[in-house]
Amino acid sequence: MHDAPTSLARTIDRYVGSLEGAGYSPHTLKAYATRLNDFLRWVVADSGGDPDDPGDVARPAALQSAETVQAYLASLRRRRIGRRVGVSTTTLNHAYAVLSGFHRWMERTLRLEPNPMRDVLKPRGETSVDDEFKSLTAAQLEQLLDTARNGWPRGSGPADLRTTNRKLEDWLLVAFMGLAGLRVSEVCGIDRDDIVGDTVHVLGKGRKRRAVPLPPELLDVLAEYSPPREGRHLFGRPTEPGRRLAPYAVEQRIPRLARRAGIMELRVTPHVLRHTFGSLMLAADPNALIPTRDLMGHESVETTNKYAHTREEARRLALISMHELRRGT
Fold first, then answer.
1. I need a labelling partner for 235 at 20 to 30 A (CA). Which of 49, 229, 260, 321 fits?
2. What separation, in Å, do the N-terminal and C-terminal C-alpha atoms of the chain show?
3. Any bridge partners for residue 69, and if so which?
């Protein structure tokens, strides 16, 4: 390997900067930087250093060692995340893809030789569609919305001290993902003037804008909700309303809210809420594949088609929908 920049941290900064120059979205840039810096901290800790103070890690062996990269990926399988052990297959594949892109860039730009990723095994053990596209039932979604709006019963956790407006905000966060199919980054990126009539205009993946119609009940709650006075954003941070609510804060808030609602069968995340929207759309109308794709902002209809998995609840809802249509109800 030829002389490289003095530290892996600076190399990561250069790489992320090159992606920004290539027009990658802020959400993608943040995801890449987060993964690569997690890799950096792991490299430092694995070599006996302080992961919170990587300093100038000059040309670490990991850049030339497929074994070290493979060990990092293996560590993700063992990492404890709340009550769960191991990241999802999607996260593992994303980590592999990010590291592959990073090393290809170093091979091309910094003349990294040899590229260790050529000898790193791609993660295996794909999960089933049901595991990867977990979703709530219609009843569970209503239960979550009710808890967000009206509070949780005594004995299910600490007393509900949320203000009325915070309850409205929590309901809207759940509804934008569960009733309108938005991504968490799209929800946090909504400005007040993005809502025109009964439609919200969002900036999705690839910086593509799309218009998503909103259900009447969501519009009703929006009319009651008071957004931050400072800034243009619809949702602000609890302690700093003038700053836009961050996706990671929503990712922490939703699982807590679901536990308060008594939903213990699965860990409810923003992804689960979005999956719920897709699943319920196709359960109600299996022919709505193209409209569902457009509403969710999928690049390919094949992605949307994964929501048409044959879970018992999906089959039951489709059957009910068919009988209601037959009876004209």
1. 260
2. 71
3. none
The residue ranges of every structural domain in the chain are 8-127, 132-327
Q: Which residues contact 243 (CB under 8 A, 6 or more apart)?
A: 231, 236, 237
The β-bridge partners of 195 are: 200
With contact defined as beta carbons under 8 Å apart, do 2 and 108 qualify?
no
For 207, which DSSP code? G
Helix, strand or coil for residue 209? Answer: strand
- pTM, rounded to two decimals: 0.57
Q: Are strands 195-196 and 199-203 parallel, antiparallel or unpaired?
A: antiparallel
**What is the residue-level pLDDT of the chain in tens, covering all 329 positions?**
333 334 778 888 999 999 888 887 888 888 899 999 898 888 877 666 555 554 544 444 445 578 888 888 888 888 877 666 777 777 888 888 899 889 888 888 887 777 888 888 878 654 444 445 678 888 899 999 999 999 987 766 678 889 999 999 999 999 999 998 898 889 999 999 999 999 999 887 777 788 888 989 999 999 999 999 989 999 999 889 999 999 888 988 999 999 888 888 788 889 889 888 888 877 777 666 667 777 777 666 566 666 665 444 444 555 555 556 556 55
CA–chain centroid gap for 20, Å, is 20
Q: Name the superfamily (CATH) of residues 132-327.
A: Intergrase catalytic core (1.10.443.10)
CA distance 196 to 84: 41
